[in-house]
Amino acid sequence: QKEVEQNSGPLSVPEGAIASLNCTYSDRGSQSFFWYRQYSGKSPELIMSIYSNGDKEDGRFTAQLNKASQYVSLLIRDSQPSDSATYLCAVGLYTGGFKTIFGAGTRLFVKA
Amino acid sequence: EPEVTQTPSHQVTQMGQEVILRCVPISNHLYFYWYRQILGQKVEFLVSFYNNEISEKSEIFDDQFSVERPDGSNFTLKIRSTKLEDSAMYFCASSDPGAPHEQYFGPGTRLTVT
């Protein structure tokens, strides 16, 4: 069973702080890794993708991947109240066709 | 900015009825997907579709489900005989051939089976 595990939270941080979100995955054949943001009642929105070990930065977001540890993280710098949402970790697999497995998500609250 | 659209936004149906959920993917995308999200639960992969055929499906995607690309723009999910447990939000997604895993989601169709 291919699993993606996340802390469900909620994670509460003050405005301006760094929010750190973590994810582990079970399938070593996973090829690509994503963070989606989902506001309540809305669809997932892709915010970061990462394919190789190390860090990838995009604005206030930094994704980190460690394939040996099967670990992905997302750092949100200078957190804003508008960042309050559920953050979904997702893992892409190719098993003859493309498949994406999502974690259950971490709820983030940014307090003004 | 191009986006994935889905219709209807909300569908109510009776148990045992057939429903068709419709999606218009982003125009230059070639990979198409359906997911479902039961209220309060995780997003679950149902099926991926490429080159007019299913490329991968999950164990959820059993014989009551089918997908079709009836023309150059629409992508549909049919549920043949709905059950109460099919009540969920259904999301369509599409991706560019250069980055097939980087998926862009539509707003979803909320399916309620009574």
Number of helices of chain B: 0
By secondary-structure content and strand pairing, the structural class of chain B works out as mainly beta
Q: Helix and strand succession of chain B?
A: EEEEEEEEEEE
Major sheet details of chain A = 6 strands, mixed
Q: Output the radius of gyration of chain B.
A: 13 Å
Structural classification of chain A: mainly beta
Number of helices of chain A: 0
N/C terminus separation of chain A: 40 Å
Main sheet of chain B, how many strands, which sense, barrel? 7 strands, mixed
Please provide a written account of the structure.
The complex is a heterodimer of chains A (112) and B (114). Chain A is mostly beta strands and 112 residues long. Helix content of chain A is 0%, strand content 58%. Chain A contains no helices and eleven strands. Chain A is globular and about 45 Å long. Chain A starts with a strand and ends with a strand. The mean pLDDT of chain A is 94. Chain B has strands at residues 5-7, 10-13, 19-24, 31-37, 43-50, 53-57, 65-68, 75-79, 88-95, 104-105, 109-113. The mean pLDDT of chain B is 95. The N and C termini of chain B lie far apart (37 Å). By secondary structure, chain B is an all-beta fold. In chain B, 34% of the residues are buried. In chain B, strands 2, 4, 5, 6, 9, 10 and 11 form a seven-stranded mixed sheet that branches. A four-stranded antiparallel sheet of chain B has the order 1-3-8-7, with no helix packed on it. Chain B has no helices and eleven strands. The chains are: A mainly beta (112), B mainly beta (114). Chains A and B meet through β4, β5, β9 and β10 of A and β4, β5, β6 and β10 of B.
Key words describing this protein structure:
heterodimer; A: 112 residues; mainly beta; 11 strands; 0% helix; B: 114 residues; four-stranded antiparallel β-sheet
Task: Please specify the SSE layout and strand pairing.
The complex is a heterodimer of chains A (112) and B (114).
Chain A: E1 4-6, E2 11-14, E3 19-25, E4 32-38, E5 45-50, E6 54-58, E7 61-66, E8 71-76, E9 85-94, E10 98-102, E11 106-111
Chain B: E1 5-7, E2 10-13, E3 19-24, E4 31-37, E5 43-50, E6 53-57, E7 65-68, E8 75-79, E9 88-95, E10 104-105, E11 109-113
Parallel strand pairs in B: 2-11
Antiparallel strand pairs in B: 1-3, 3-8, 4-5, 4-9, 5-6, 7-8, 9-10, 9-11
